[in-house]
Amino acid sequence: FDKATVEPTPDPATCSIGEKVWEDSSKDGVQNANEKGISGVTVTVTKPDGSTETAVTDDNGIYHFTELPNGEYTVTFDTPKGYEPTKVNVGDKALDSDGQTVKVVVDNADDYTIDSGFYKPTVEPTPVPGTYNLGDYVWEDSNKDGIQNSNEKGIAGVTVTLTKPDGTTESVVTDAEGKYNFTGLENGEYTVKFTAPEG
C-alpha cells in the first residue's frame, strides 16, 4: 500500500501594524510636512488573547509591531512629558491622529496608518501681583492743631515700623525733611507705628 501524503498545516499568516507619533505644532490634528516625530514614546499593543507587547518610537517617531495574526488589537499611546493629545480623526486616515487608544483589526494586511499626535500647550506666565508704596511725613505740630501747616517742619530720625499682613515687620527712619516711604507692598492690611522722638 502506498503511504498517504500528509500536507503540513500552513502557519497562519501574520501582519504588521504601526506608524508614527508626531508633534502637532499646528494643533490641527494632521501631520504636516514640517512637523517632526516624537522619539521615546511608549506604545502598547493588547492582543486578542489579552497579552501585551510594547514598542518605543525611534528618532523619527516611528514604531511598529510585527508577526501579528488576524484579530482585533488595541494600540495605546503614552502621553509624552510636556505634551497634550491633539484633535483626532479630522482628515485622511494616513495623516490624522487616531487618538491615544485605537482599535485595530488585522485581516490579512499590514496597517501602517495608526498615528497619534501631541502638542505642547502654551504655558501662561503666572501674573505678578501689583505692588504699591506707603508713606508720607512726620512733622512738628508747633501749634498743636493736628494739621500740617506750611511753616511746620519735618522731624528727622523718627523710626517708623510697618507690620505686614503676614506678621513680619519692616522699619525705616525719616529723612532730613521728615519723610518716610515703604515700597513693594502687595494688597493687604498693614499697621504703621511711629516711635515718638525724644523731647
TrEMBL record:
<keyword id="KW-0732">Signal</keyword>
<dbReference type="Pfam" id="PF17210">
    <property type="entry name" value="SdrD_B"/>
</dbReference>
<feature type="region of interest" description="Disordered">
    <location>
        <begin position="1"/>
        <end position="35"/>
    </location>
</feature>
<feature type="domain" description="SD-repeat containing protein B">
    <location>
        <begin position="16"/>
        <end position="117"/>
    </location>
</feature>
<dbReference type="InterPro" id="IPR033764">
    <property type="entry name" value="Sdr_B"/>
</dbReference>
<protein>
    <recommendedName>
        <fullName>SD-repeat containing protein B domain-containing protein</fullName>
    </recommendedName>
</protein>
<dbReference type="InterPro" id="IPR013783">
    <property type="entry name" value="Ig-like_fold"/>
</dbReference>
<dbReference type="InterPro" id="IPR051417">
    <property type="entry name" value="SDr/BOS_complex"/>
</dbReference>
<feature type="domain" description="SD-repeat containing protein B">
    <location>
        <begin position="133"/>
        <end position="199"/>
    </location>
</feature>
<dbReference type="GO" id="GO:0005576">
    <property type="term" value="C:extracellular region"/>
</dbReference>
<keyword id="KW-0964">Secreted</keyword>
